[in-house]
């Protein structure tokens, strides 16, 4: 199964993640071993394959800019080398209205139990202390939760239904 990447800052994290999966010592280098994609028909079929264990039967072929002349095979993630998991997530950009009428924006990532260690629903608002939401956005290759928000749900009221691939 082909997955293409095109964000230049994430490329070294993906390569480090592949080396880590092979068992190489990466000496504290930042890694990316997951990616989110828009949930479509193909993603729904993958989620149906194993709704309890969240596994898929296909290897992942990770490509850099697969539809351009710059394309390059980054590497392969084989199922037999440790499995690949998929989870349906939704990302929401909304706001909280306090009893006094004041409002503040909030982003939420929501997924099934087991998609991550800890809570299945995560929240973040600008100005929050680093939290689990921040950790997940960092794991996905973003340098800040604001950058994650701006990529997936830039406008108040936006919702992004995603499939998360973890390897």
Global morphology: globular
The parts where pLDDT drops under 50 for at least 5 residues are none
Tally of individual helices: 4
Helix content: 10-25%
Task: Write down the secondary-structure element order.
Answer: EHEHEEEEEHHE
Query: Over the alpha carbons, how many angstroms does the gyration radius reach?
Result: 17 Å
Strand content: 25-35%
Q: Largest sheet, order of strands side by side?
A: 2-8-5-6-7
The main β sheet shows up as: 5 strands, antiparallel
Rounded to the nearest angstrom, the distance between the terminal CA atoms is 13 Å
The number of strands is 8
**Structural class by secondary-structure content:** alpha+beta
The average pLDDT value, as a whole number, equals 96
Describe this structure in words.
The protein is an alpha+beta fold and 167 residues long. Helix content is 22%, strand content 32%. It contains 4 helices and 8 strands, in the order βαβαβββββααβ. It has helices spanning 11-21, 41-49, 132-139, 145-152; strands at 2-5, 34-38, 60-64, 72-77, 85-97, 103-110, 121-124, 159-166. The chain has a 5-stranded antiparallel β-sheet with strand order 2-8-5-6-7, sandwiched between helices. A 3-stranded mixed β-sheet has the order 1-3-4, with helices on one face. Strand 5 and strand 6 (103-110) form a beta hairpin. The longest helix has 11 residues, at 11-21. The two termini are 13 Å apart.
């Amino acid at each position: 199964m082909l997955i293409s990447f095109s964000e230049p800052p994430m490329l070294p994290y993906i390569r480090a993640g592949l080396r880590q999966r092979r068992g190489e010592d990466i000496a504290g280098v930042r890694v990316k071993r997951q990616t989110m994609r828009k949930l479509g028909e193909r993603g729904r079929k993958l989620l149906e394959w194993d709704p309890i264990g969240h596994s898929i039967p296909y290897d992942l072929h990770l490509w850099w800019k697969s539809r351009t002349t710059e394309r390059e095979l980054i590497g392969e993630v084989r199922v037999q080398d440790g499995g690949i998991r998929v989870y349906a997530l939704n990302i929401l950009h909304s706001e909280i209205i306090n009893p006094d009428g004041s409002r503040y924006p909030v982003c939420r990532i929501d997924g099934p139990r087991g998609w991550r260690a800890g809570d299945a629903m995560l929240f973040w608002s600008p100005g929050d202390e680093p939290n689990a939401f921040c950790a997940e956005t960092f794991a996905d290759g973003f340098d800040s939760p604001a950058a994650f928000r701006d990529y997936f749900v830039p406008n108040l009221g936006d919702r992004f239904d995603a499939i998360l691939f973890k390897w």
